[in-house]
Amino acid sequence: MTRCFNVSGPCRPDKHYMVNLQSRLEEIRQMIDDGEYFVINKARQYGKTTVLRSLAQYLKRDYQVLSLDFQNIESDEFANGNAFVHAFARETKKGCVPKEMKEKMLQLADNRNQYARMAELFACFSEWCGQSERPFVLIIDEVDTAANNQVFLDFLAQLRAAYLDSDIVPAFRSVILAGVYDIRNIRRKLRPDETHKENSPWNIAADFLVDMSFSADDIVGMLEEYHTGMEIGHIAKMIYDDTSGYPYLVSRLCKLMDERLAGTEEFQDKASVWTKKGCLKAVKILLEENNPLFDSLVNKLGQFPELNAVISRQLFQGQPVAYAPDDTAVRDALMFGFVKVKDSTVQIA
Question: Across-strand partners of 206?
Fold first, then answer.
């Protein structure tokens, strides 16, 4: 099967050209070995799902891994605790679940006429953790997809309680939540009023410091798999300089050069497109197109007026913005991937 550069959904090594994730997986594995509860919060299309799927495979020899995606739970299934428990159990039984646990999850998922409490779901998990010969790791992707009601807060509260009581009652060795919103800021998505912005009851998450962006060396490794006789180091550096290593943008530029430009009148073969001229042409196309990442960023500017004001001040007025961790607009800009912090100053990413 011919591989390609991927910008739609998670990457698979058998289908797509990818950077080597080994060093990132090793860093995350160390956090899991230490029994950490942490959140991978990065902007859209930053490779979170690709990393989580690779992580689940990487861990399975030494850990019992339950990996879920909240995008598979419909919004109306977050309407109340009963509906949520049925949906969560349904998704759980799709995984590699021991026979006796699968039967219990089937009962919770399929018996719609019986009211199910969240405590029953966590009791099943505790029993499962106690019986497992390997430590249990819970991974939930897109955890903020339906973070718009009290049921989600109740789930986080139960999850926190189970994790904190793991020295008394069997529970998950490590919990990994992934989404755009930091768990400490999720309540900002739930409620617009100022008094409920901070999610302090769940501030137990460890710092996640693994760099998810691509370095120039990462890009070199990906291009070595592709290979056209190009000056790989030079092209990788150009791509990195134009994207700051944002995974989607790196892959999009590569995809444009490989599929859109190669074979055109201006670039008759792949060797001619993987040049400085070809790279600049791909950047021009990227800046002129509509794509899901740019649409998402524009959306956020409409949703958060204070964020819009900060970005406008930098782009159109040239005003420097000092980094202040208590500045909500700046924190939003960081969370959604608009800016980076360098020398205590906020800069457009």
Answer: 38
Tokens representing 261? 């430009």
* CA-based nearest residue to 19, from 212, 301, 286, 276: 212
pTM of the model: 0.88
Torsion of CA 128, 77, 57, 50, to 10 degrees: -160
pLDDT value, residue 195: 42
Instruction: Indicate the SS3 state at residue 268.
Output: coil
DSSP assignment string, 92-154:
HTTSS--HHHHHHHHHHHH-TTS---HHHHHHHHHHHHHH-SS-EEEEEESTTTT--SHHHHH
> Whole-angstrom Cα distance, residue 330 to residue 321?
9
d(C-alpha 50, C-alpha 71), whole Å: 15
User: How many whole angstroms separate alpha carbon 156 and alpha carbon 104?
Assistant: 22
Q: Which residue has the higher pLDDT, 17 or 101?
A: 17
SS in 3 state form for 237-262?
A: HHHHHHHCCCHHHHHHHHHHHHHHHC
Question: Which residue shows structure tokens 């019992």?
Answer: 64
In the structure encoding, which two tokens stand for residue 150, read together? 């009290």
CA–CA distance, 101 with 227 (Å, rounded to integer): 48
Q: Which of residues 95 and 281 earns the better pLDDT score? A: 281
Residue 41 burial (10 A CB sphere; 0-12, 13-18, 19+): buried
CA dist 276 and 238 (Å) reads: 8
The answer to whether residue 193 scores a pLDDT higher than 60 is: no
Q: Is the pLDDT of residue 191 over 80?
A: no
Of 207, 199, 163, which is closest to residue 183 (Cα–Cα)? 199
Which residues face 19 on adjacent strands? none
Is the Cβ–Cβ distance between 59 and 32 less than 8 Å? yes
Give the span between the Cα atoms of 103 and 84, in whole angstroms: 18
Question: d(Cα 124, Cα 101) in Å, to the nearest integer?
Answer: 7
CB 43 within 8 A of CB 248: no
Q: Residue 156 has which token pair?
A: 């986080």
CA 67 remoteness from chain centre: 13
